[in-house]
UniProtKB/TrEMBL annotation:
Dimethylallyl phosphate binds at Y184, R200. It catalyses: dimethylallyl phosphate + FMNH2 = prenylated FMNH2 + phosphate. The keyword Transferase applies. This is Flavin prenyltransferase UbiX. InterPro entries: Flavin_trans-like, Flavoprotein, UbiX-like.
Length: 226
């Protein structure tokens, strides 16, 4: 155990789970924004998401070199080109197969959890309480401890079974945020659309950011459905 010493501040991170759905740029944008906001992050990358990350970015995410790989991932924009300089010192990484990791216990302090992107398999596992890996276990812990859980589902179309799982998550207190970019915020590049979704995920978690232009209303016009 590592008790907090007198004068020290307890580290209370946001847990970010990355599942195997397409949409790793969404996760990168969320992670960059959390770090820019001064938040600590505990990162869990599922086995399936490593394959997606490799396919979408060409990056092999390795347990033994995770910080190096994370810096390369977060440094790229949605177009795959270097675009950001990110300090990852506030990130702690937990392998998805480590069911003895900190986030597997309710006594481990966290502010909540963001699953971005969330595959339908991940949604089902969390809704059914399967806890087959650390990502699902951490989400179950987040729900039982009544901490914020945001699930950014990235799939279309959705069948009835997945819709029922999403309703079950909503009933359990989670916020379901479909990865549906809005176009009213003046998007001119793919990164703008990615940042819009990431911003809505952070909005649901109550984390401040400047990722997109907010709707302020206009005379004679109706507000968009956001």
């Amino acid at each position: 155990m590592n008790p907090v010493k007198p004068g020290e501040t307890r580290r209370t991170p946001w847990i970010v789970g990355v599942s195997g759905a397409s949409g790793t740029p969404y996760a990168a944008s969320v992670l960059r924004a959390l770090l820019a906001a001064g938040e600590s992050v505990d990162l869990v990358v599922s086995r399936a998401s490593r394959l997606t990350l490799l396919d979408e970015t060409g990056i092999s995410f390795r347990d033994a070199h995770w910080r190096e790989d994370l810096r390369e991932w977060l440094g790229r924009g949605a177009d795959g080109k270097p675009a950001f300089d990110v300090d990852t010192e506030a990130v702690r990484y937990w392998p998805a197969g480590d069911l003895a990791a900190g986030p597997s216990s309710g006594s481990y302090p966290s502010k909540g959890m963001l699953i971005v992107p969330a595959s339908t398999a991940c949604v089902a596992g969390v809704a059914l309480g399967l806890s087959k890996d650390l990502l699902q276990r951490a989400a179950s812990v987040t729900l039982k401890e009544r901490r914020p859980l945001v699930v950014a589902v990235r799939e279309t179309p959705l069948n009835g079974q997945t819709l029922r799982h999403l309703v079950a998550l909503d009933d359990a207190g989670a916020s379901v945020v479909p990865a549906s970019p809005g176009f009213y915020a003046g998007a001119t590049h793919i990164q703008d659309l990615v940042d819009f979704v990431a911003g809505r995920v952070l909005d649901a978690a109550g984390v401040g950011h400047g990722l997109y232009r907010r709707w302020q209303g206009e005379l004679g016009g109706g507000a968009p459905g956001q």
